[in-house]
């Protein structure tokens, strides 16, 4: 990782702290923990997986957009366009902080989940999901000018991406549905939290789809940022 990318990571951490993103996220995680503590036994077994699935999507999508709107208001990206900072450096800063935030949340929630069958699968899936939604969020955020505009307008982009994920709850599960990234991601989380059993193919195919979705989203974000930053 370049020195410029490390500097941007530090900048993102300071910006997120200054604008209360960490405080807001702590409240969200505390709410999740409260729900799992008080209602865990009465909730359907797939609820923890669903909470974990929607969490990195929200972090990667909404928090990214808010950060980019704040940077735009402060003229940060205009300054970056005239600097030696590359699209890779800029994207690395956003990925590192926001994916890290999603993984931290997942680790905090794990003790309150009644059964975690595969912690490694859980963390890998959360990381891939977060990467995908950060990547998708970049070109969408570039379309908006204000935080409020993004938070309202971007929901129209996010909903069709997440909604098909509920198909992962079907039993028996048609494996061909795993071609939909949201379905693969939630299905992997259901496996990781011990809600459903799986064969080798039922793990491998969703993992391949989730990985390809993350890689494609990063490529999309990089392309959009090269147009924005001019390099």
From TrEMBL:
The chain crosses the membrane at residues 21-43, 49-70, 91-114, 120-142, 149-169, 175-196, 203-225. The keyword DNA damage does not apply. InterPro entries: FLQE3_permease (IPR056926). It comes from the Bacteria. Signal peptide: none annotated. It holds the Pfam family FLQE3_permease. Keywords: Membrane, Transmembrane, Transmembrane helix. This is ABC transporter permease. It comes from Devosia insulae DS-56.
């Amino acid at each position: 990782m370049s020195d410029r990318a490390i500097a941007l990571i530090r900048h993102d951490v300071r910006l997120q702290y200054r604008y209360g993103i960490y405080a807001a996220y702590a409240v969200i995680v505390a709410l999740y923990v409260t729900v799992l503590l008080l209602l865990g036994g009465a909730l359907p077994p797939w609820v923890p997986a669903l909470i974990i699935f929607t969490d990195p999507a929200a972090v990667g999508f909404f928090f990214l957009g808010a950060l980019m709107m704040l940077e735009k208001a402060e003229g940060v990206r205009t300054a970056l366009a005239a600097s030696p900072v590359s699209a890779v450096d800029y994207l690395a800063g956003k990925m590192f902080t926001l994916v890290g935030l999603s993984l931290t949340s997942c680790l905090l929630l794990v003790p309150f989940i009644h059964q975690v069958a595969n912690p490694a699968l859980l963390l890998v899936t959360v990381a891939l999901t977060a990467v995908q939604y950060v990547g998708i969020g970049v070109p969408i955020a570039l379309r908006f000018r204000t935080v409020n505009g993004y938070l309202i307008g971007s929901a129209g982009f996010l909903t069709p991406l997440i909604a098909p994920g509920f198909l992962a709850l079907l039993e028996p599960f048609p494996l061909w549905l795993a071609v939909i990234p949201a379905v693969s991601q939630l299905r992997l989380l259901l496996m990781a939290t011990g809600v459903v059993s799986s064969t080798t193919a039922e793990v491998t195919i969703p993992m391949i789809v989730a990985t390809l979705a993350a890689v494609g989203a990063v490529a999309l974000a990089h392309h959009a940022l090269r147009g924005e930053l001019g390099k």
